[in-house]
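User: Can you write out an input/output pair for a complex, sequences first and structure second?

Assistant: Here is one pair. Inputs:
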Amino acid sequence: MTITEKILADHAGVSAVRPGDLVQVRVDAAFTHDVTAPLALETFHRIGVPRVYDREKVILVADHFVPNKDIQTAQQVKKMREFAREQGLRHFYEGGETGICHVLLPEKGLILPGQVIIGADSHTCTHGALGAFSTGVGSTDLAAVMATGEIWLKVPGTIRFEYTGTLPEWVQGKDLILHTLGRIGVEGALYRAMEFTGPVIAALPMHQRFTMANMAIEGGAKNGIMEVDDVTRAWLDERTSGPYRVFRSDPDADYESVVTIQVDGLSPQVACPSSPANVMPVSDVGPVPIDQVFIGSCTNGWLEDLRCAASLLEGRKAAPGLRLVVIPGSPWIYRKALEEGILATLLDAGAVIGPPCCGPCLGGHMGLLAEGERAVSTTNRNFIGRMGHPKSEVYLANPAVAAASAVLGRVAGPAELF
Amino acid sequence: MTIEGNVWKFGDDVDTDLILPARFLNLSDPAELAKGCFLNLRPDFIGRVQRGDVIVGGSNFGCGSSREHAPLAIREAGVGAIVAKSFARIFYRNAFNIGLPLLESEAAAEGLKEGDRVSVDLATGVIENKTSGKIWRANPIPPFMRELIQAGGLVESIRMKTHGARG
């Protein structure tokens, strides 16, 4: 069996599962945020059970439209707060304690290898980077998990992606996943597990693994997953003492297919409008003028992402007329970036720095685009109208490309700065 | 159960941002959500769609975010069913969970045209183009999903299990 199959079999209480099997599995953590929680809480009340299945394992995070952007949002978050209080939930985050759920929860040690994680957000696949089975659902499914602690799932077939070679300078996890999406398309992994393996992944730091697993959904996947190794263990050791179980794919595991990707010679990649699979090397994009650069989100809002951007923006300035928006993924990242002088560097470069939240990524709160405007963004989606006006455009890239583009006022790779 | 209405035809990869833009996500009242349905893609949709109409999509319909607001907005707008070549995974679950039936049929999604009169029989999977007389048979809904629909959706199915009766 593959890692995904082993975790699902374990949590279903059976010795083995095969792709296509329908299984009822135990859930180790279930979370929802200010967009999906209001519907989930309403549905939870309709189900009619008095308490959530486990007050330690049901987690509420206000992260999309916070600090509350308008009266409706304030009302929604109020409902979350009251629910958390009524139910005695251990984990409810808002105000100065909140960050993007997919950054905040692993950082707090709430996600561990071998677990089944269900989140009412499509980018819940992020947590597969820690060797957990983690998938996104809608509000009704989440409410059912809150009530029962279980969910039915179809066991996905697994596609194994093997990355070989050595990563060239400025090429990161973001480029690997964009390049992969460019190859397989937005439904290339529909309903499947994407298992990321190979020597390149083994050498990849944890934040870049999160970036890759984060965008598995952009290929239609149910989950992205990676094996636990020393990098994972070291990352977890700094954040949690919680015991966890490690599952590995058998050498003879049945994969639906294997995709091998040679990374020597790969350059930073850009997903052009309006699909995360419309991918090409940054040098092929051409000198597209841009109005805004956004660095942040559950894809690239990690401390190392800000550090990378700051290393290029040090002593440089965002192009005249260009808006540079930077949002750290969590309060911890914000503080670290402050202590390390990253925020000062970014401010000197002309950045506006937002409070930890999803920000302009989904075009709901802060930093939206006007008609005809273009942005380079370290986020995960560039659908039509995603970041604002339906006639605005988004180019997805890694933080180094974003920083270089900010300086040059057009889509540009970091090599152009030297 | 048969649904009959006019066809609204869409292309491939219709994402949830196109179905319902993020500025509507601070709401949860389905009637309010319906006002934003396809607003960026087809601003005329909400004014003209009629109860029982059928959306016909290409492949990967409903890709993107997990917002259940998207199928809720479609259901509340009056749409009776969606026929598409394929659906994104989370959208598929969400739609059934809230009682919006989906049928997968490449041929029907190919053959049906904007404005055609169509009937969709959920029990048999038969899709009939009343305008041209052509008939297709969709992939049957798996037994597991039929149970869910029979109970009246996921909430009702849990209620039946936890309370022993529907209500």
